[in-house]
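Case study 2.
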Amino acid sequence: MRLWRALIRRAWSIRLILIAGLLSGCEAGLSLASPDAIGLPRGLFAGLSALVTAAAFAAGLIAQRME
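Prediction:
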């Protein structure tokens, strides 16, 4: 069990894979959500959606390079 904890603490590729998965999930959730339901202005919602999509793309690319 200690080996897994040490691996997760030191392995950036695992962290980036987890971040990429989390951001991809957020991207999917934002595509289903409505700005009116969340209570955000449409422009801010669109900007946040674009930011999450770009971050998911970048994290996915970095995670693939590290494997």
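The helical segments are 2-10, 12-32, 35-38, 42-66.
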